[in-house]
Amino acid sequence: MTAEANPETIDEAMAIRLRNSGVTRVSLGAQSFNKDMRGNLGRSGSMKAVAEAVAYLRAAGLENIGIDMIFGIPGQDACILRNDLEDVLALSPEHISYYELSYNIRGEYHLRWHRELAEVRDKNPHFYQMVVETLEVAGYRRYEISNFAMPGYECRHNISYWEGSDFIGLGAGAWSTTGQTRWHNTENIETYLEERMDLDTVREIEYLSARKKLWEKVMLGLRNASGFPIDEAREVVDEQALEELGDAGLLCVNDGLVTLTSRGFFLADDLCSRILLSE
Questions:
Q1: For labelling, which of 2, 70, 154, 155 has a CA lying 20 to 30 Å from the CA of 161?
Q2: Are residues 75 and 37 in contact, defined by beta-carbon separation less than 8 angstroms?
Q3: Angstrom distance (rounded) from CA 27 to CA 271
Q4: pLDDT bracket for residue 100 (50, 70, 90)
């Protein structure tokens, strides 16, 4: 069982409580160890808090720790990213997620940082390559675009999402999918608590067609190192686009599986839009 936590919330007592509650894996949101970068993300705390959280969790007997990081932060340069990589590796987590910063281009964050975001956007392909090369040299395997793990420590519940398996989400704002039905619980906590016995009032339901499920399988499969089986997906795939992208060195087809190359991974969203036919 995985628990996600801000490092500042983990002390000795909490680490023991998590272990005794059956938690076997903890994912810590670090984002960056650089004080200025954390400030630019609106985050408080420090590297010390992350290191202390890891130490408390290790002392409590937890042997599967993940750390979430971000690149593409306003003001970030290669030196700052390199230091972040060194700092996260020094903690020896079993799993590292390294996400490109995402934001709403019409939101307040973009309005505040639009110039710096434009500057760092051009550096992001290089930053991503730095992340991949550094973590792979350190022994981590990239099993999804943004996720790296020591052998045997891949995140199983994430893999189940990407493979299109059924899952149940509990609580306000949670998503669930079973078969061809997907639903989303209201994000209003008060409404959820008041009306939780009346499911129709607290969730929005979407019915998924077989084509939609297949379309999502291809989209998610492209993000994984395992890819997707071409024979199952011909109905929703532009095979001419596949051939062109293969000739460009951005993907390959081996033993019936379509996978992205190292060059193709960073362009996954663009490649997906070229490969997939309309829903």
A1: 70
A2: yes
A3: 30
A4: very high
Domains and CATH numbers, the chain: 2-154 (3.30.750.200), 161-207 (no CATH), 210-275 (1.10.10.920)
Please, what sign has the CA dihedral across residues 133, 135, 137, 142? Answer: negative
Q: Which residues lie below 8 Å from residue 152, measured CB to CB, with a gap of 6+?
A: none
Which helix (H) or strand (E) segment holds residue 30: the answer is: strand 25-31
**Tokens 């760092």, residue located:** 120
Q: Tell me the C-alpha distance between 8 and 38, whole Å.
A: 14
CA distance readout (Å), 236 to 67, 73, 118, 194, 239: 35, 35, 34, 42, 9
CA angle 123, 128, 133 (to 5 degrees): 130
Strand partners, 276: 237
Q: Which of 3-7, 55-59, 85-89, 199-203 has the lowest mean pLDDT?
A: 199-203
User: Using CA atoms, how far apart are residues 192 and 170, in angstroms rounded to an integer?
Assistant: 11
Q: What is the mean pLDDT of the chain?
A: 90
pTM: 0.88
d(CA 57, CA 247): 48
